[in-house]
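Notes, p. 3: input format for complexes.
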Amino acid sequence: MSGVLEVVGLRRTYGTVTALDDLSFEVPAGRVVGFLGPNGAGKTTTMRAIFGLTDLDAGEVRWNGASVGQKERRRFGYMPEERGLYPGMLVGEQLEYLGRLHGLTAADAKAATNTWLERLDIADRRGSKVETLSHGNQQRVQLTAALVHQPELLVLDEPLSGLDPTGIDAIGQVLVDQAAAGCCVLLSSHQLDQVEDLCEQVRIIDQGRMVVSGTVDELETSGARRLVVRVEGDRAADWAQQLPGVSVSELSAGAVRLVLDSSVNSDDVLRAAMQAGRVTEFSFERRRLSEVFREALT
Ligand code: ATP
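Output follows (298 residues plus adenosine-5'-triphosphate):
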């Protein structure tokens, strides 16, 4: 499997609200890409547009360079934010039905359903009604619904919300494995720590516009240097407040996180810290994705 999703110049207005404002980005095959942005940024609208569920004022969605239509969408998988399963239908029946809708034979749909239910550790719920499942198990079924026909592109709207750590690991691993097998994976989430663990790339949007796009690695290693310093017994870090070219970005549990201008010599910071007391930690750190996110939106 290989492919690239391109959204090109998407524009969507609702009355006076501009939900998407000339939004363009790409999602390459073989990567898990995080789609981030504050509430109301336009993530769900974009995902719905990929599946033809939102009328656009302008723009186009392309798959491997060609405009996307219903034929291509049969090879895509979507996990919507408003989970779209039939609550009264049995889990197994529903998944087989969805597999057949996407073009699988009855036998293949059954085999794929069984494989995924086993993989997500919910094979024992095959004969249960969806409405009787816990939230986490409904999420697993919903993920299976998006995966059952082995799509080339997976688009997931907040697949990790409300899951316990085991559920996050289980679903996260499935997404990583799908990408490793060549699938394009785009997921939205507000849980940036998990995005950091799971996603190789991110697209951050705000007010319907692209603000940051890149690999997590590049974004975390770019920008000003971050230094974490701990001085024994010192919880206020007064020594750091007045250093030229240095700003305190966070103080927690006795460690101070500093952002250094390019002109600052870190030896000077170390000397200032040593004058304040015994230095028990002094390390350069990457930007966190949460910092990348906050800085992108200011
Ligand atoms: P969240 O993180 O809160 O889920 P989001 O990034 O998914 O947000 P969208 O749901 O795409 O954001 O909404 C983008 C903007 O479009 C918001 O201002 C929202 O109020 C508006 N919007 C979305 N759907 C509609 C609609 N059907 N009618 C009117 N406005 C809408």
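The chain has two domains: 5-220, 223-296.
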